[in-house]
Amino acid sequence: MLGALVGALIGTVWTLLGLGMGLRTYLDDNSSYNTWSYGYQVTGDGLPTLIGWAFVLLDLLNFIFAGTIGGLAARRVALPT
């Protein structure tokens, strides 16, 4: 459980840092940043599009999953049965 919380915390910080950098681009009238993945635009002017938010959510879930697996592995090593 603790591993999932740590994974969620790391994923949330990672997401907020990415949004902060994208917000700088969005607010600057002289810059633009767009990315495409699998044929869909995932960022427009630095911020996620609708499908981009789905990718952000998947990234967050990946961090939670990795934290859960890491926590379970650490517990298994620390407390062998």
Detailed description of the structure:
The protein has one domain. By secondary structure, it is an alpha+beta fold. Strands 1-2-3 form a 3-stranded antiparallel sheet. It is built from 2 helices and 3 strands, in the order H-E-E-E-H.
Fill in the keyword field for this structure:
3-stranded antiparallel sheet; 81 residues; 2 helices; elongated; alpha+beta; 68% helix; 3 strands
How would you summarize this macromolecular structure in one to three sentences?
The protein is of the alpha+beta class and 81 residues long.
Domains counted in the coordinates: how many? Answer: 1
Q: Describe the sheet with the most strands.
A: 3 strands, antiparallel
Query: What is the CA-atom radius of gyration, in angstroms?
Result: 17 Å
Number of strands: 3
Mean residue pLDDT: 90
Continuous helix count: 2
Percent of residues in beta strands: 5-15%
Structural class: alpha+beta
